[in-house]
Amino acid sequence: MEVSLYRVREQVESLFFGVLLADETTRLRQSLRADLRTRRTALAARRRYGTATGQDLARLDAETLSLDQQPARAWPSPAAACWPSSACCWAARCRRMLCWSSP
To answer: Record's SUPFAM superfamilies (predicted)?
Structure first.
């Protein structure tokens, strides 16, 4: 019985820290996206006045596109996050591990 309680505790801790990691990753991505938007606005103004090239603007757009194409999830793997015998929401619906109810 104790072994299974330790296993449950490990899984709960894994889920908890996974959620923290996902939240921090989302916050960092939003911050980076806002920074890229600000830099693009400034770079577009510099290009209008002739102090920057279109290539600089294209490079910044490519960086923004690369950020948007990165996977948004930060979970280690669905199998590692789910309880072995439960019908958790990961496999069925939400993929965010926000609820513990069965689908």
So the answer is: Outer membrane efflux proteins (OEP)
